[in-house]
Design goal:
Layout lengths: L29 H10 L14 E2 L11 H7 L10 H14 L3 E5 L2 H12 L5 E4 L4 H9 L3 E4 L20 H11 L6 E5 L12 H14 L2 E5 L3 H11 L8 H11 L2 E5 L9 E5 L2 H8 L2 H4 L10 H13 L3 H20 L12 E5 H4 L9 H13 L1 E2 L1 E3 L19 E5 L7 H16 L7 E5 L5 H4 L1 E4 L3 H13 L4
Parallel strand pairs: 1-10, 3-4, 5-6, 6-7
Antiparallel strand pairs: 2-8, 7-8, 9-12, 11-12, 13-14
Bound molecules: pyridoxal-5'-phosphate.
């Protein structure tokens, strides 16, 4: 909580919770970390978690759950059909978003699958502030394409713009006029944005986009997977929201949208997903797909225990103490790195701390995956696994050349209420060391490259022996220390 002042120390983000269940962690010696990352094909998705000290890959399904969530899991009604658990979750989703209909799905991308199948047809264009990997793939699989209409600030990695996730309204109207409303089934706003550094969207921008959508009779869809952090930024950075409660801000955002979907692995701090909307017609169309792809209508592929936890998680997402934890820890992490000159995305956003890999390892050619190389190096020197969010996460160009990403980032996610401040200080310290030794980091090349979403399970190797040299320098500086 940022409004608690310290007497002697500089203000620190103070946890408004206590730890009651812990999980033991393991920090391997650096030689074993080197073997582990090689075995994982230099892809942090392929590391075994027993070899990871701080799992900063994602917040997806990894946020700490509250006592109330764990308690609620014990009252789950496991009925295949008509489960009482479903009605509790439906009520919680209706309360949070204020929409009439709720459809359950097993996670966020399952919602995207159902929405794309129902709404996108061959040749359609879907404007959005920024794409997410699975969103784009589902739209493309249905014959549509994605057009990003982010503001110029969005990809300026160093900025003081408080809402870099905003839609550029002029670009949106120009796009509608050039493509034609008949080819635009919906405009999508991702709140907040994943691939450009967890940057938020203002309520004012959502309202303005909604007005444009109404003018052209186009639906507005909101991806609320990352709305928890976004709500925090609306509350602390936006004058319009100053005197609103978090629940009121969530409702004001929701009121602007026709359809909202979310990954409950993120919003809800459990595992699952859901879609809310007021249109009976679209609800009926999607309803028919749920038993085919997800499960019966009253569980949609989710475990009923997780559904109970999501219902409580939605309620807790309106608690400022809960939603401030991630962004405030990330800001503190960023402060330490910036004081050492490490290039990061500013202002710090939600979800995780984002390192500007293009600045840090600019000596590595773009085709050798700057962010992925940095990610591999971070694991070697710290045992922490982050996620590449750059060229490797992009699809190749049609001619087979690399599509160099507009932002080349490494994300170190801070799942909510999981890590302590000393763990944040540890990883910050190792990154500062790595920054001072960045000239030792080299590139990667594919040894196995899947055609679609290659970042998940693709395998790579170092282009030379830079990893061994990095280990040697680490040992020189840290001696026997892990
Ligand atoms: C903005 C956004 N949308 C959709 C998804 C997909 O959700 P899931 O991982 O639950 O399939 C994610 C996951 O990271 C996300 O960040």
């Amino acid at each position: 909580m940022s409004n608690i002042k310290f007497y002697k120390e500089q203000n620190l983000p103070l946890e408004m919770h206590k730890v009651r269940i812990v999980q033991k962690l393991n920090l391997l010696p650096i030689e074993e970390r080197l073997s582990a990352i090689k075995e994982a094909g230099n892809n942090t998705f392929l590391l075994r978690n027993k070899d990871v000290y701080l799992d900063m890959l994602t917040d997806s399904g990894t946020n700490a759950m509250s006592d109330l969530q764990l308690g609620a899991m014990m009252i789950a009604d496991d009925s295949y059909a008509g489960s009482e658990t479903f009605y509790r979750l439906e009520k919680a989703a209706q309360k949070f978003f204020g929409k009439k209909y709720f459809l359950p799905a097993h996670q966020g991308r399952a919602c995207e699958h159902l929405l794309a199948k129902t709404l996108v047809k061959q040749g359609d264009v879907d404007p959005m502030n920024y794409h997410f990997t699975t969103t784009k793939t589902h739209i493309q699989l249905c014959g549509g394409s994605v057009e990003e209409i982010y503001s110029d600030e969005a990809i300026k990695l160093t900025s003081d713009c408080p809402f870099k996730g905003n839609v550029d309204l002029v670009k949106l109207e120009n796009l509608i006029n050039s493509v034609g409303v008949e080819h635009i089934p919906f405009v999508r706003i991702e709140m907040g944005t994943n691939l450009i550094g967890g940057q938020p969207v203002s309520l004012e921008n959502v309202k303005a986009v909604s007005e444009i959508c109404k003018k052209y009779n186009i639906m507005l869809m909101i991806d609320a997977s990352l709305i928890t952090d976004n709500l925090y930024f609306n509350k602390v950075r936006e004058q319009l929201c100053e005197n609103m409660s978090v629940a009121e801000i969530a409702r004001a955002i929701s009121d602007c949208a026709d359809i909202i979907y979310f990954s409950a692995r993120k919003l809800g701090s459990a595992k699952g997903g859901g879609i809310v909307l007021n249109s009976k017609e679209i609800y009926d169309q999607m309803k028919n797909l749920i038993p085919i792809y997800e499960g019966f209508l009253t569980y949609g592929g989710m475990s009923t225990r997780e559904m109970e936890a999501v219902a409580i998680g939605l309620e807790e997402a309106t608690d400022i103490d809960m939603i401030s934890h991630g962004p405030e820890f990330i800001a503190e992490f960023g402060r330490i790195l910036q004081s050492h000159g490490v290039p990061i995305v500013t202002p710090t956003g939600g979800l995780g701390l984002h390192l500007n890999a293009r600045e840090i390892v600019g000596h590595i050619p773009g085709e050798q995956f700057q962010a992925a190389s940095l990610c591999s190096a971070i694991y070697i020197v710290s045992g922490a696994r982050g996620m590449e969010r750059g060229t490797l996460s992009e699809e190749k160009n049609a001619d087979g050349s690399e599509h160099i990403a507009s932002c080349e980032l490494v994300r170190l996610a801070l799942p909510r209420r999981v890590f302590t401040l000393s763990q944040v200080r540890y990883i910050a310290d190792r990154i500062c060391w790595l920054y001072d030794n960045r000239h030792l980091i080299g590139g990667l090349r594919f040894t196995e490259e899947p055609k679609v979403m290659r970042f998940f399970i693709g395998r790579l190797e170092a282009v030379n022996d830079w990893q061994e040299k990095l280990v040697a320098k680490f040992k020189e500086d840290f001696g026997e220390s892990l």
